[in-house]
Specification:
By secondary structure, this protein is of the alpha/beta class. The chain has eight helices and seven strands; from the N terminus they run αααβαβαββαβααββ. The radius of gyration is 17 Å and the shape is globular. It starts with 12 loop residues before the first helix and ends with a strand. The relative contact order is 0.14.
Length: 216
Amino acid sequence: MIEHGEDPRHFPRAVHDLVDGPVQWDRLESFASLVREQGELRGLIGPRELPRLWSRHLINSLAISQFIHDGTDVCDVGSGAGFPGLVIAIARPNLDVTLVEPMERRVEWLRDASVAMGLANVEIVRARAEELHSSRHFSVVTARAVASLEKLLRWTWPLVAPGGRMLAMKGDRATQEVEDARKVLRKFALAAEVHGVVSPLDGSVTNVVDVHKRSN
């Protein structure tokens, strides 16, 4: 099926290798179709984003996958349309993924999409990240296009279990955001590394900020 100019039938093998197998790839294609059919109507994605749905959102979301070990419990904060949390859950059925989203209409979408995809590894929580600080902890916390790193750390780091990490997907200002967040990083005794992940689809680079406790 052609997705508004991006044809997954012609994607390189390396793109397919980003997911755990053919069943997961079929589900990802089904999710792409669902977003294409309903995303604009439900206020989840703009019409200009649809022609680059795969490159800009689906494959982009998988940039963090290589930093998450099998069997890990993951919390995606501000899941919105499901990027990256729902995409990761589709691609990696061996992960337990909790999607945290405060807006009701987005929560309804996440629930509908999870049921439509037949996902058994997803929990959806309607809340702000701060509301879960005292009750929930995860090995990995992820976020994409939620807030500046400085704000994001204050909201998400209390959710990270001992020995865990926070993975933030950032744009060209990733290094500057790390610098701007130095005060918060020192407060929590954290280290932050910026990894440039190259897309096997179009060669674009996604910056993943990997935040974890300092080793000393």
